[in-house]
Design brief:
mainly beta
Length: 86
């Protein structure tokens, strides 16, 4: 059985409810997400996204720095960027 190096309390990022999460971390890797039973918002329950959605942290396509457009956009003529190089 894996024992966590540390348990970090945080808030779920998926919706506006603000459920309490506890991230179980071993060697700087999140391997399990739980919720405290005394949590005011969710009382120990989590939705599917809250319980299993921590994989996005390790996704190779995740945006980790602010994106700044290379060409200025006029307020009334903005275009959608389909590529990170834009």
């Amino acid at each position: 059985m894996i024992h966590a190096d540390r348990v970090v309390s945080t808030t779920c990022p998926y919706c506006g409810v603000g459920c309490n999460l506890e991230l179980h971390i071993k060697d700087d890797y999140i391997y399990k997400v739980t919720s405290p039973f005394d949590g005011v918002v969710n009382h120990g329950n989590l939705c599917v996204k809250g319980r299993f959605g921590y994989d996005f942290v390790y996704n190779q396509h995740r945006v980790t720095v602010p994106l700044i457009r290379k060409t200025p956009q006029a307020p009334s003529a903005r275009t959608q960027a389909f590529d990170r190089s834009e």
